[in-house]
Amino acid sequence: VPRLEGSDGACELDPEAVWESFCKLLDEVLQGNTNAFVDNHVDAEINPDRINCIACFTENLLIDECRKGLLCYGCLETWLLWRLTGGKTFATDVSCASVTGMYDSFSRKWSRPILASLGIPANILPGVYPSSYYYGTVQNGPLGYSSNPSLSIPITGIIGDAQAATLTENCLSPCQAKLTLGTGIFLNLLSGSKALAVMNGFYPVIGWASGHPYFDCISTFYMGSTSSSSESPSSVPSTSRSFHLGDLTYLVEGFYPHAGTLIDWLQSENIFCTYSELEEMLYSGDRLGLDEKATRENIFYIPLPRNTLKHHQNTLIGGPLKLNKNSFYGPDGFVIGLDYSKSADKLLVARIFIESIAFCTKFMLENCRKQTRISPSILYVNGNVARSNWLLQRISNVIGIPVERRGLEECSCMGAAIVAGVGAGLWPSFSAATEAVHKRLQSEANSLPSVDINNTDLNNSKKLNSHKLYRRFMPESSEICISIKKRYHIWSHIRASYLRKK
Fold first, then answer.
1. What is the pLDDT of residues 211-266, one digit of tens each?
2. pTM of this prediction?
3. Which of 131, 189, 190, 227 is least surrounded by CB atoms within 10 angstroms?
4. Which part of the chain is the Carbohydrate kinase FGGY N-terminal domain (predicted)?
């Protein structure tokens, strides 16, 4: 998707190009291309700083248009919904709104104090509705060309990607936890029907909710609005519309931006060529006893926040690894303990980078436990990085509980389908939907032989049947776990010392 770049360095995705890419993807799917997918991360959330910058750089020229209702601002899904419905629906759902920084998850309303402090008019933001809800019918795009109105396709669900993945993992009860290892690390823990006040890197979000309007919206295709907001693109739908939230579920969410980016960086530095080679390198390190060597020589990869890392870049002792110029630094941290006068051991470099993902997971989980007193008994994982058996075993060893990789490749897509299915009345509840999905997965898994994905190139992992990826990782022997936890404690102390030095 083309980017719009300003002279000040700011950049945005071209919204029309996003729409065209979305329509192209739908076309490919309709033509039977089942391998059509978009796997690039897009910042889809409303960003309050972005709105504020727009207002500042235009010297408030847009304020009058905001007040007149001629300007609207929303999430990526708001834009796609707007285009799909022909400009008739300007809305988002509670899950997407709750991660914007401007929505009060406790009162379930846009936060007036935050909006006032940022100078953002409330009337430019979308109406907020349940995840499973009738949002209108498709009027535009490849699915909107039906000449018969009765055949129009209803839009019955919207949900954030991290929440959708949590729902797919069948995490429906308090204290259950899901970890997504993709470009970054998303940790979600269920807190039940009430939001928890958390800080220090965690925040309460709404996972999902179903809506039950007073009208039979699926059979009548009626939005249930008593105003003209659904007909006028310049109007904001009222959030006091006649519906109540069912299955309202809150999560505690923590995020770290680097997981897959570490692996991409290692590949760009020619540490490995294929993902199967990387996995073999990690297991080779086990056989060579590299954990003992790394602990003995205090060899670690230390990730730090961007500003802290920048502060230390001119004060760190030692030269770069002899891989590429300035490869001493990773995308979010630096290596300590290696002999920089010699060529770096690629097995060791790969190991400490991938190990840092497990340590970041442990750090996030411990922090969340302290704040919420939520202690999950099992951690469900998904995402492309979660295909590494070595990494998941290391996570299990360091956190001390089972780690389970379910049999679904595209958890966010399945979660969105579940939400839409509940909104369309295919299932009476989220629990009924996830139960049906997992029963089918289990049936398929029992009927087919398993495969060892360690011997499969993960570049071609999309071709694998998802049910063949299922595996539960249990903590290994106490001796191994003690050794890994010892490394974690050293790593966390070193990291804390650099955080204090900024």
1. 854 333 333 333 333 333 333 333 334 433 445 677 899 999 999 988 999 999 99
2. 0.80
3. 227
4. 72-167
- Would you say 93 and 133 are in contact if contact means Cβ atoms under 8 Å apart? yes
Query: C-alpha dihedral over 147, 152, 153, 154, to 10 degrees?
Result: 160
Please list the alpha-helical segments (H only) found in 31-102: 48-57, 63-67, 76-84, 94-97
Query: For 380-403, what is the mean pLDDT?
Result: 96
Side-chain-side CA neighbours of 476 within 13 Å: the count stands at 14
Alpha-helical segments (H) within 411-455: 411-423, 430-447
Mean pLDDT of the residues in the chain: 80
The verdict on residue 117 lying in a domain is: yes
Please tell me the total count of domains within the chain. Answer: 1
How many other C-beta atoms can be found within 10 angstroms of the C-beta atom of residue 262?
22
Q: Which amino acid is at 257?
A: P
Axis-axis angle for helices 161-168, 411-423 (nearest 10): 80
Query: In the numeric block, which tokens belong to residue 421?
Result: 């299915």
- C-beta of residue 190 within 8 angstroms of C-beta of residue 207: yes
pLDDT confidence tier of residue 295, bands split at 50, 70 and 90? very high
Is residue 234 in some structural domain? yes
Sign, CA dihedral 267-471-164-374, equals negative
Spatial strand order in the sheet of 202-211: 154-157, 132-137, 202-211, 245-256, 185-192, 177-181, 379-382, 403-405, 471-473
In a domain, 81, yes or no: yes
CB-side exposure of 108: number of CA atoms within 13 Å?
Answer: 21
Using one digit for the tens of pLDDT, what is the confidence trace for 91-113?
999 999 999 989 999 999 999 99
Residue 202 tokens read as 């965690």
H/E stretch holding 135: strand 132-137
Give residue 387's Cα distance to chain centre: 16
What residues make up the domain containing 215?
3-158+208-243
**Is 364 inside a domain boundary?**
no
Cα–Cα separations (whole angstroms), residue 92 to 103, 131, 214 = 12, 8, 20
483: tokens are 């050794």
| Rg of the chain on CA atoms, in Å | 24
**Distance between CA atoms of 309 and 392, rounded to whole angstroms?**
27
Q: What is the pLDDT of residue 328?
A: 60
One-letter amino acid at 189 equals: L
Burial letters 328-363, b for 16+ CB under 10 A, else e: bbbbbbbbbbbeeeeebbbbbbbbbbbbbbbbbbbb
